Hints:
This protein is of the alpha+beta class. It folds into three domains: 4-110, Sandwich (Immunoglobulin-like); 117-229, no CATH class; 240-367, Glutaredoxin (3-Layer(aba) Sandwich), CATH 3.40.30.10. It has twelve helices and 15 strands. The strands form four sheets. It has a five-stranded mixed sheet with strand order 13-12-11-14-15, with helices on one face.
Amino acid sequence: MQHYLHTLLCMAALGGGLCLHAQQPVKITGTVEGVDAGRLLLIVPTSETETDTIATADFDAASGFTLEGTLSEPTGAQIMLENYSGGFFFFAEPGKTYEAHLVNGPGSYIRGEGLQADWLDYQAQLADITARRDSMQRAFNELRAQSKFRSASEANKRLEAYTRESNAQVSRFLASRDDILNAYIGYTYVCQRELPPEAIRQQYDRLGNGARQSIYGRMMAQRADRLAAATKGNPAPDFTLETPEGKPVTLSQVPAKLKIVDFWASWCGPCRLNNPKLKEIYAAYKDKGLEIIGVSLDTDKQRWTDAVAKDGLPWIQVSSLKGWKCPVASLYGISVVPAMFVIDASGRIIATELRGDALKQFIAQQLDK
């Protein structure tokens, strides 16, 4: 299959009206429980790594709130309380109105016609499937614990049959939708399971044209491209970040025969435990052309610099101080730390996921020639 960028360009050329549709209003009215007053934000995705706040509204317990913005296409949206984490997800459509009651727990809802109603129905079906499956699983476990193996075997057969039928039910729902709901479920699936680029492309290929052209179809394509860019054999995505002293460092401009980009953080225990071996490797090979660029996913500068000093890390240290929202972490598809990329003199990634003695052996093979 050709690169996803080509796919996106074709979509833009053939379906460019997607971006040119007239903006239409979207309106949400409702109440907030548990917080006396504050400000609400209505946030929508604009790409896989970026969002836009399309409306804000102040609220208090007495008068509730009204959020009004504009949309040009259906999208997933989140209502977030300013200065609080988390949010309330729903599907927003141009020209639609919604009613909401926001509370941190049971009783919270966002209701509306169209996609949101379909989504709530689907969620209810999933909840029923999960409850019945859990009940059957508990019955099987109890029979097995009581050594009633024949009854347990029959219960397990019923559980397996129900699991097959419930999976088929979900598949039928997806097959009936060539729209953003299908794309959103697929996009959530690939993100939660941290699928590699080729597996994401397989999920993308199963979508119909309508789902592919939705915001989540486009985001799935973007995710596949982004992750593929940081895989072995590809040119390393270039970036510029600042040192603790504020000096910008650009990866491609760091002179070295071999570079290690080390994603880490002061709060990451395995990262800190890996530092002594990394120091050993650096001491042995820095004069032979090795350089290390440590990319910290810290948000607190003092904790970052304290960790660098305490661990005695002598190589280049940079950070955006945005934690998991670091754009370079996104560029490299980082979901866990530590994560390392070995880059050759031509700027190509030649190894990933190496640590400890395995990393040392690989560096030796490259620089002891």
